[in-house]
Here is the input.
Amino acid sequence: MNNSIDLSGFYGTEKYYRHALTSSVYTDGVQYFAEQARWRAARRAGLRCRRGDS
Here is the structure.
């Protein structure tokens, strides 16, 4: 499994996002990174549950 997240397509931003709890503003590149990280973490957790790892 490749653990790197390719952000080479992001230069500047087209959209800004606001964090619901902290009101911090971040770019679409950070949003993409966060989505990919969540997806990968959920996938790893699912694989561990199927294998019986803790």
About this structure: Strands lie at 16-18, 25-27. The radius of gyration is 15 Å. The chain has a mean pLDDT of 82. Residues 16-51 form one domain.
